[in-house]
Amino acid sequence: MRKKFMMVLALLSAVTIIEVGMGMIWSRDESMKDILKYTFIILTLVKAGYITMIFMHLGDEKKSFQWTVLAPYFVLIGYLIFICLVEATYAGGTRPGIENYFGF
């Protein structure tokens, strides 16, 4: 059991070190900001899924049950990220009405 926790610690630490390193190196380059942002989102989802698989003992279940638990999680997180990115483009109350989204 201790070996498993040490492996989890090592893997999550490695992914975090990669994230921090990428942020330190490429955050100043404007052309890399979008790639960096989406890479952080993907790596965060990978870490969250891995934590769920290990600490909720989901890794020991059947694949169909794993997908039943993880798929809604990833869909809802993706939807939340979409909402955050769309809402972040509006400034100072200049948000267009719903008719502009659907072309009414």
Provide a descriptive summary of the structure in words.
This protein has 4 helices and no strands. The chain is mainly α and 104 residues long. It has one domain. The longest helix is centred in the first third of the chain and has 25 residues. It is flat, with a radius of gyration of 18 Å. It starts with a helix and ends with a helix. The mean pLDDT is 81.
Q: Which whole number gives the mean pLDDT?
A: 81
Helix-strand category: mainly alpha
Q: List how many beta strands DSSP finds.
A: 0
Beta-strand residue percentage:
under 5%
Q: Percent range for helical residues?
A: over 70%
* Major sheet summary line: none
Number of helices: 4
Q: Which residues sit in consecutive blocks of at least 5 with pLDDT less than 50?
A: none
- What is the 3D form? flat
Radius of gyration: 18 Å
Domain tally: 1
Give the helices and strands as they follow along the chain. Answer: HHHH
In whole angstroms, how far apart are the ends? Answer: 59 Å
Would you spell out the secondary-structure blueprint of this structure?
Blueprint: H1 2-26, H2 33-55, H3 63-87, H4 98-102
Helix pairs in contact: 1-2, 2-3
Annotation keywords:
single chain; 104 residues; mainly alpha; 75% helix
